[in-house]
């Protein structure tokens, strides 16, 4: 492997001290409660905060129990390409999604890994339909996302967080996008899965044909799906049913995001002399 | 109007404030910004800390792994610090491999670890020449608003304080290692170095704990790493000259601040224990 | 929607009102299926023009403004070449930008008369603050500026002694410390700009780093 001279190098090889965990087959405890005491359709407590990065135009932080994601959005800048053919009448969202090296059970490399790239693209696809791209032709808005700790549903958390950060940066949007994630194995469905539940459902339990995880980007005001990412196996009937349930699940998160944003706007009116400007 | 002078004529903007012995954010020249230290917030890491100095935020996560010690130092483990300045923390950074500032900061932290010997590398050795711990300390800046080195050093030291390592038994003959995840012992630090950055402006004003705006306008910065009485590093990358008196003034201020910061780390350590 | 002191605060995607002949969508809003929605988080403002109410949302953050042709901008000269000089736009009108834009000022756009006799080195120097007008965009990647008006040109320029120079004619500026004269394309400035610079007489001053 080539030596990275830009970083302080450790020993050539090192290994995790934890043994690869034998996957816990019993995800549901007695009384159909999950490992962390939630019901199947229950969401973890959401903590959201806009305006956490002073150097960014807009930013937000989201915490779903152990899943912690921070996002910052910057001023629109001219698109990098010099090629005239690539100039478009629409703006663009540029996303960079990164897991911190200490975010997971296994240590991750500093370089961008395959899933970082994949998630960057998924996030971009989820956000673009929500943004009024025609308002900044030929410009791109940079969205930077860092997962500080990953305990499942990190892409869904990132979508919600980036939506709030974009609104905080005063990027014109049609709606506040909301990210939702669901894992399923057999007949049991886990809304807002933890890391263990995600891994379990992706692998699938022996004897059950249906298993997998899907993450959805949703625009609640217009009841539109902006992006859907599914991996695993599911019958098409059941899939349709799951999608139709999304609306009600999203409403709760959407309300929370709206409330946070409203109070942020209110407090900034109260604290600044912007008020005289607005009279 | 002030915002225009600031963008068009930043030097004058700064001087007008300093002439009245006050800084653009309302601080006195020697006043540091409010500091907060939060330890153990990342449970996937073996040790972690989040340090906030004013707007500047640095998070440090430490992952411990097992490795074979270096042949030159068969009874020592490793501590590998790396600083990341991602584009997330400020628009001045580009994505991709670490830039010059990040590389210098990483090396600065590595030097402090060597000079201060705050982690006894021999205590990281499990069996000489066979097995030792390597602590990967990854520091990520989340908000770049000046004096980032101070926040990095504080985050590194506080995160090291929280590291606990499981007991490992190594059988030299069968090369079997058994890790007892339940039996964890904390890492002990021999000293607690902390950095204090000062910015020099026009050769006669010295600003403690400069913000990003001040750092970009000043003629030079100086970072002093101390732990109470001992001095581990004085880092002055270029800039204007500094008289001896001024330097010793800075050093004594840095020493005082290192004690305050140490108190804060101890306090936050207590809060997670209880 | 929620209101404090009779101000209505909204978030993106919120319905503001039904769109009709006398209610139209303005800045910070969009229209869809007969309704006006907010596209920004901020305060709702209704502006009455003739018989029409324009529904707008004003954000608390500064809107990201982009220079458009005809705007008067404040720019700093970065590099002076023989046929053009590179500048960065710092302010558009009276809005200070958080991120500067690159712009070019060509030899033929320096002044309105005797265009061919303009020498760039005798008109600008790196570090000068100039007022200029944005020209129609020709190249996608750079803005073109013009100073071919009496009110446009150099407004702040520092001499070798580091002090701001005083304009003495349309083509010259003088250093108040060592009285050297320098050639510039001087703007006919509004008096308040001169006041600001006159009070600044510290001799230890250095040139702002370029």
Automatic annotation (TrEMBL), chain A:
It comes from the Eukaryota. This is Exoribonuclease phosphorolytic domain-containing protein. InterPro entries: ExoRNase_PH_dom1, ExoRNase_PH_dom2_sf, PNPase/RNase_PH_dom_sf, Ribosomal_Su5_D2-typ_SF, RNase_PH. Belongs to the RNase PH family. One of its GO terms (biological process) is nuclear mRNA surveillance. Keywords: Cytoplasm, Exosome, Nucleus, RNA-binding, rRNA processing. Coiled coil: none annotated. GO terms for cellular component: cytoplasmic exosome (RNase complex); nuclear exosome (RNase complex); nucleolus. Residues 42-172 form the Exoribonuclease phosphorolytic domain. It comes from Cloeon dipterum.
UniProtKB/TrEMBL annotation, chain B:
One of its GO terms (biological process) is U5 snRNA 3'-end processing. GO terms for molecular function: mRNA 3'-UTR AU-rich region binding. Transmembrane segments: none annotated. InterPro entries: ExoRNase_PH_dom1 (IPR001247), ExoRNase_PH_dom2 (IPR015847), ExoRNase_PH_dom2_sf (IPR036345), Exosome_comp_Rrp42_subfam (IPR050590), PNPase/RNase_PH_dom_sf (IPR027408), Ribosomal_Su5_D2-typ_SF (IPR020568), Rrp43 (IPR033196). The keyword rRNA processing applies. It is found in: Cytoplasm; Nucleus, Nucleolus. The keyword Cell membrane does not apply. Residues 31-166, 192-256 form the Exoribonuclease phosphorolytic domain. GO terms for cellular component: cytoplasmic exosome (RNase complex); nuclear exosome (RNase complex); nucleolus. Keywords: Cytoplasm, Exosome, Nucleus, RNA-binding, rRNA processing. Belongs to the RNase PH family. This is Ribosomal RNA-processing protein 43.
UniProtKB/TrEMBL annotation, chain C:
GO terms for molecular function: RNA binding. Residues 9-46 form the Exosome complex component N-terminal domain. Residues 97-135 form the Exosome complex component CSL4 C-terminal domain. The keyword Zinc does not apply. One of its GO terms (biological process) is RNA processing. InterPro entries: Csl4, EXOSC1_C, Exosome_cplx_N_dom, NA-bd_OB-fold. GO terms for cellular component: cytoplasm; nuclear exosome (RNase complex); nucleolus. This is S1 motif domain-containing protein. The keyword Endoplasmic reticulum does not apply. Coiled coil: none annotated. Keywords: Cytoplasm, Exosome. Its main location: nucleus. It comes from the Eukaryota. It is found in: Nucleus, Nucleolus.
């Amino acid at each position: 492997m080539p030596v990275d001279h830009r970083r302080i190098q450790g020993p050539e090889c090192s290994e995790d001290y934890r043994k690869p965990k034998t996957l816990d087959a019993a995800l549901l405890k007695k009384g159909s409660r999950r490992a962390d005491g939630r019901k199947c359709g229950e969401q973890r407590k959401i903590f959201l905060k806009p305006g956490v990065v002073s150097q960014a135009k807009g930013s937000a932080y989201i915490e779903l129990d152990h899943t912690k994601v921070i996002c910052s959005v910057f001023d629109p800048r001219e698109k990098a390409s010099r090629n005239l053919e690539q100039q478009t009448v629409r703006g663009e969202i540029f996303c960079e999604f990164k897991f911190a090296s200490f975010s997971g059970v296994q240590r991750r490399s500093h370089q961008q890994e395959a899933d970082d790239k994949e998630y960057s693209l998924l996030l971009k696809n989820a956000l673009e339909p929500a943004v009024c791209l025609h308002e900044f032709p030929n410009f791109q808005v940079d969205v930077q996302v860092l997962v500080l700790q990953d305990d499942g549903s990190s892409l869904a958390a990132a979508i919600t967080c980036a939506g709030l950060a974009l609104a905080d940066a005063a990027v014109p949007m049609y709606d506040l996008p909301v990210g939702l994630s669901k894992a399923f194995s057999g007949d049991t469905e886990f809304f807002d899965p933890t890391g263990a539940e995600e891994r379990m459902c992706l692998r699938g339990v022996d004897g059950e044909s249906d298993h997998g995880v899907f993450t959805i980007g949703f625009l609640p005001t217009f009841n539109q799906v902006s992006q859907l990412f599914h991996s695993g196996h599911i019958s098409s009937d059941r899939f349709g049913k799951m999608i139709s349930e999304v609306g009600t699940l999203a409403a709760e998160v959407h309300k929370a995001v709206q409330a946070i944003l409203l109070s942020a706007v209110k407090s900034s009116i109260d604290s600044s002399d912007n008020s005289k400007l607005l009279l | 109007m002030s915002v225009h002078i600031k963008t068009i004529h930043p030097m004058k903007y700064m001087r007008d404030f300093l002439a009245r012995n006050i800084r653009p954010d309302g601080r006195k020249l020697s006043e540091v910004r409010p500091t907060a230290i939060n330890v153990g917030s990342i449970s996937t890491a073996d040790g972690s800390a989040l340090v906030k100095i004013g707007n500047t935020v640095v998070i440090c996560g430490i992952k411990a792994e097992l490795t074979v010690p270096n042949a030159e130092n068969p009874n020592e483990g490793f501590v590998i610090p790396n600083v990341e300045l991602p584009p997330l923390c400020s628009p001045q950074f580009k994505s991709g491999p670490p830039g010059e500032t990040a590389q210098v900061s990483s090396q600065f932290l590595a030097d402090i670890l060597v000079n201060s010997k705050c982690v006894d590398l021999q205590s990281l050795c499990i069996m000489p020449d066979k097995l030792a711990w390597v602590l990967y300390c990854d520091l990520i800046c989340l908000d770049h608003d000046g004096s980032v080195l101070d926040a990095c050093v504080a985050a590194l030291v506080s995160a090291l304080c929280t590291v606990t390592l499981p007991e490992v038994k190594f059988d030299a003959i069968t090369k079997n290692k058994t890790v007892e995840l339940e039996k964890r012992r904390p890492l002990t630090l021999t000293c607690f170095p902390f950095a204090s950055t000062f910015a020099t402006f026009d050769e006669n004003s010295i600003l403690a704990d400069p913000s990003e705006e001040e750092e970009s306008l000043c003629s030079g910065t100086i970072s002093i790493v101390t732990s109470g009485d001992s001095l581990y590093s004085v880092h002055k990358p270029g800039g204007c000259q500094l008289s001896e008196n001024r330097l010793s003034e800075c050093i004594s201020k840095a020493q005082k601040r290192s004690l305050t910061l140490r108190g804060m780390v101890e306090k936050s350590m207590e809060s997670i224990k209880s | 929607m929620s209101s404090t002191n009779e101000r209505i605060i909204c978030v993106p995607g919120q319905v503001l009102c039904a769109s009709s002949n006398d209610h139209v969508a303005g800045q910070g809003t969009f229209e869809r299926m007969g309704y006006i929605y907010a596209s920004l988080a901020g305060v709702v403002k209704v502006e009455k023009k003739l018989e029409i109410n324009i529904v707008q949302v004003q954000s608390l953050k500064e809107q990201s403004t982009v220079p458009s042709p005809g705007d008067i901008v404040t720019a700093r000269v970065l590099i002076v070449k023989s046929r053009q000089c590179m500048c960065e736009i710092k302010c558009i009108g009276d809005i200070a930008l958080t991120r500067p834009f690159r712009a070019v000022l060509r030899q033929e756009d320096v002044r309105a008369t005797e265009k061919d006799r303009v020498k760039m080195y005798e008109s600008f120097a790196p570090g000068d603050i100039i007022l200029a007008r944005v020209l129609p965009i020709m190249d996608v990647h750079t803005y073109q500026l013009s100073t071919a008006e009496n009110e446009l040109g150099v407004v702040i320029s520092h001499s070798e002694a580091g002090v701001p120079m005083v304009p003495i004619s349309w083509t010259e500026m003088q250093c108040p410390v060592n009285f050297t004269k320098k050639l510039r394309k001087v703007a006919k400035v509004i008096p308040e700009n001169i006041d600001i610079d006159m009070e600044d007489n510290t001799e230890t001053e250095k040139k702002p780093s370029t």
